[in-house]
Amino acid sequence: MATNLTFHKGSVESAERVELLKQKGVTIWLTGLSASGKSTIACALEQHLLHLKKFAYRLDGDNVRFGLNKDLGFDEKSRNENIRRIGEVAKLFADAACVCITAFISPYRADRAVARELHAKSGIDFVEVFVDAPLSVVEARDPKGLYKKARAGEIKDFTGISAPYEDPESPEIHIKTDKANLDESIRIIVQNCVSRKE
Q1: What is d(CA 102, CA 137) in angstroms, rounded to the nearest whole number?
Q2: Minimal CA–CA distance to 165: which of 122, 108, 111, 124?
Q3: pTM score, whole prediction
Q4: How far separated are the first and last CA of the chain, in Å rounded?
Q5: Is 147 exposed, middle or buried (0-12, 13-18, 19+ CB in 10 A)?
Q6: 6-32 per-position pLDDT tens digit
Q7: Is residue 1 very low, low, confident or very high in pLDDT (cuts 50, 70, 90)?
Q8: Region 105-133: what's the mean pLDDT?
């Protein structure tokens, strides 16, 4: 790691940015198994917020691996680095007064805790949303055919099958997508964020 660095403080203070943009930044961190509904919820939430004239942006697991994280695999060390980078990027978006919506499996509690701590140190809200569906349900959904491949041994280190997923212990929001529909899921998240401001 380079040591000859100096942080260059900008001329725009956080309070000024919030006042001018009329919103405070927050990271809404969606975590859960593949096919639990994270990306579907993230897309709908982003659209809903934009229609409310809110500055919102979605970071999606697969999409980020096409660019920023294209050098990472799916072994545990790579997954740790993947989530570390996303935590940093999400924090930057939220610092810019954006509602940053992340949709990543992020299987390890420790990695999610690191992302939360990054935000806490900067005084930025972090809302963990456990997008929860039983393994039997996500395997039945399997929109990308990944569970079938994992069961056949074609994909190694696949979360929920051959790699662990650690359920959040105390997420701000817990949505069971085998019971709540998309509209209800969005309502729950938006209501939580509104109540946090009050």
Answers
A1: 22
A2: 108
A3: 0.93
A4: 41
A5: buried
A6: 777 888 888 898 899 999 999 999 999
A7: low
A8: 96
Which has the closest alpha carbon to 121: 155, 95, 147, 146? 95
Cβ proximity of 103 and 35 under 8 Å: no
- Across the beta sheet with 99-103, the strand order is 56-60, 99-103, 26-31, 125-132, 173-176
Tally of residues, the chain: 198
Q: How far is CA 156 from the centre of its chain?
A: 23
Instruction: Report how far residue 95's alpha carbon sits from residue 103's, in angstroms, rounded to the nearest whole number.
Output: 18
* Enzyme catalytic residues: 106
Give me the phi and psi of 53, to 5 degrees please. Answer: 65, 30
pLDDT tens figures, 33-60 = 999 999 999 999 999 999 999 999 999 9
Q: Which two tokens stand for residue 23?
A: 């919103």
